[in-house]
Amino acid sequence: MNMQALMRQAQSLQKDMLKSKEEIDKMEFTATSNLVSVKVNGKKLYEYARNGEKVTLPKRMVKVSEIALSSKITYKNNHVIFDIVTTVSKGTYIRALINDIAKKLNTYGTMNSLRRIKQGVFDIKDAYKLEDILEDNYEFYPLEKCFDTYTVDVDDDLYFKIKNGRSLPNIYGQSEVLFKYNNKIIALYKDENNTLKMWKYLI
Q: pLDDT tens across 59-105, in order?
C-alpha cells in the first residue's frame, strides 16, 4: 500500500471505528498484549514472550466508547504519525487497541507515547504542576470527591457495627456502598452474595 493511500485510510479512522454507538459497544478487542502479567495456563504472558514461545492471547469484551483523531496526520521518517484520544473500560490494554487499529488500516502500528487524562472521577485538568506543589500552591483533593459511589448516612447504632468491621445485609441493592457518619466518610463496603463486607475503613 502506498503512503497516500495509507494516509487516506488513517484520515477515515474515526468514521470507520465509530460507525454507530451500538456497534462500538459490541466490538471485541484483543484487550491484552503479550507483554503483560495476565496468566495463560498458569504462566504470565510476558514470560512466554521472553522465552520466544507463541501463545494465543486471551480475548475479552471491553467497552470502547470513544476513539477520535486528536492531531493532524503527518509523515515523518517513512512513518505516518497521528494522535488519538480514546475512552475505554477497565481491562483495556492500549497497546493491544493500537494493534487492532493498525489492523483496521491494513498495516502495522506502534505506540510511542501514552498519556492518561482521566481515571474514574480524577481528571488531569484538576492536577497540579510540580512547581505548584513546591511553592505550596495546592489543595488536597477532598475525600468525598474521590468516590462516585452510592452513599448512606448512618446512625449511632450502624456506626458502631461498621467501626467494629461487621458485615451488613445489602438492603440497598448496590455493589458498593460508601458509609458516612457526621458528614464524614467512614468506610467503603462491597457486596458478596447480598452481604456487604468491609473493603476499606477510612477513618
A: 667 778 888 888 887 888 878 888 888 888 877 888 878 887 777 77
23-28 long-range contacts, Cβ below 8 Å, gap at least 24?
24/64, 24/65, 24/67, 25/63, 25/65, 27/64, 28/59, 28/61
Does the predicted model carry a pTM greater than 0.90?
no
CA 189 to chain centre: 22
Residue 128 has a CB neighbour count (10 Å cut-off) of 13
Written as one letter, the residue type at 141 is: Y
In the predicted model, is pLDDT for residue 52 greater than 50?
yes
Q: What share of the chain is helix, strand, coil (3-state, %, to 5)?
A: 30, 25, 45
List the grid coordinates of 10.
Answer: 488513517
Cα 179 from chain centroid (whole Å): 25
Listed as own residue / partner, the contacts of 155-162 with beta carbons closer than 8 Å and 24 or more positions apart are 159/186, 162/186, 162/187, 162/198, 162/201
